[in-house]
Design a protein that fits this description.
Largest sheet: 8 strands, mixed
Organism: Mediterraneibacter hominis
Pfam family, one: DHHW
Structural class: alpha/beta
Keywords: Membrane, Transmembrane, Transmembrane helix
Helix content: 25-40%
Distance between the termini: 78 Å
Order of helices and strands: HEEHHHEEEHEHHEHHEHEEEEEEHEHH
Protein name: DHHW protein
Oligomer: single chain
Number of domains: 2
């Protein structure tokens, strides 16, 4: 190589290095100047705040870990860079983004969680201990399979997914006669070709909940004709759920959320959010339709204890121990119970004895999605007081 070519190559390398340094400097200045965001609307979650610098956080390593999360969340142009990453991942044939399975027809799904054996054992023992303590109360159990289990024909090729039906059947076997079992797996499998799960969110739709309610009614001693008893009303057609937010996929997909209203029954209610000391006259929160979290239209989202008083002529009072899958299910129960007390153990700080003493419970129901029930560790604490 001639001297002239070597000098030319050196100038090019120096220029590239200078451009690289200037880009880093520009990005650093940009990140300093751009104000931090509290929440990512696109991802529907709170973003990490800048950690405080102190001696203990530095010595134990927490500061650097927190600061790395902070930089990742507050990086300038983060949403644009994230979209670029998702685009190239999809171009390369990726079928999973940030833990979200990207199925056929762009069906987004959570993978089936492997049960935490210790938590599952504690939950099962808590339920059995409760039923023994209240032997005269009818107790029913409804485990809702997650979308990846029912819509298995939509799974991406070679996706390693657990058989949740087998896991649910094992729970049914272990609980035995201590509860009345409500079979959601068979019901939802029969209607799998219909819109029973959202494409962009892990929850089932109100239609899926309605089909399951028809099955549950037999076990809840509700003897009514349901097919003409409720009317579905769409309340939004622009829902884009948390799986789209988490994965960055299908952010342009808009889905419909329905509410079901009794056709011939008076459905007046008083809803008391006990810990928040707030009351409303509807089980629906229309303000949520103006946010990204539109599924929160059902009961306003999750809360520790909700007491719903109805105008039903029944004298039955239902304790519903639940996760968020129950939020759109409750609309089918209000015509048939005088009072419904919802307890979400993930947020409730008391114990179940407090609830039993404060309300004259006549019926009890456990309603969970499979993934939550198999991994959550809060139920046993609520039922044992530990």
């Amino acid at each position: 190589m001639s001297e002239k070519n070597r000098k030319k190559k050196g100038r090019i390398e120096n220029l590239i290095g200078l451009i690289f340094i200037l880009c880093l400097f520009f990005i650093m200045i940009l990140n300093i100047l751009v104000p931090d965001n509290e929440m990512s609307e696109e991802e529907n979650r709170m973003l990490t705040k800048k950690p405080k610098l102190n001696w203990s956080s530095v010595t134990n390593g927490n500061f650097m870990e927190s600061y790395e999360s902070y930089l990742s969340d507050q990086f300038a142009g983060r949403n644009a860079w994230r979209s670029v990453k998702v685009f190239f991942d999809r171009l390369g044939g990726s079928r999973e983004e940030n833990g979200v399975l990207i199925g056929k027809s762009n069906q987004l799904m959570e993978s089936i969680e492997v049960p935490d054996k210790e938590n599952l054992r504690a939950n099962m023992e808590a339920i059995q201990t409760f039923t023994k303590a209240y032997p005269d109360l009818p107790v029913s159990m409804l485990l809702v399979p997650d979308a990846a289990n029912v819509l298995n024909d939509k799974l991406p090729a070679f996706a390693p997914v657990e058989d949740q039906t087998q896991l649910i059947n094992q729970v049914k076997k272990d609980l035995g006669d201590s509860v009345t079992w409500i079979d959601a797996v068979s019901v939802l499998d029969k209607h799998k070709s219909e819109k029973i799960y959202y494409k962009t969110d892990p929850h089932w739709t109100a239609l899926g909940a309605f089909y399951t309610f028809q099955e549950a009614a037999k076990e809840l001693d509700i003897n009514e004709e349901f097919s003409s008893g409720f009317v579905a009303h769409p309340v939004t057609d622009s829902f884009n759920g948390t799986l789209a937010s988490k994965s960055g996929v299908n952010l342009n997909v808009k889905e419909t959320i329905d509410i079901y209203v009794p056709k011939d029954e008076d459905n007046d209610v008083i809803v008391n959010y006990v810990d928040e000391q707030r009351r409303t006259t509807s089980i629906y929160d229309s303000s949520k339709l103006e946010t990204r979290d539109k599924y929160g239209v059902y009961l306003g989202g999750n809360s520790s204890v909700i007491d719903i008083k109805t105008v039903s002529s029944s004298d039955r009072r239902l304790l519903l121990v639940k996760d968020s899958f129950a939020n759109c299910f409750v609309q089918f129960l209000t015509p048939y119970f005088r009072e419904i007390i919802l307890v979400d153990p993930r947020y409730y700080g008391g114990n179940i004895q407090d609830i039993m003493e404060n309300y004259r419970i006549t019926d009890v129901m456990f309603l969970y999605s499979g993934n939550t029930f198999f991994t959550d560790n809060s139920m046993s604490g609520v039922f044992t007081g530990e």
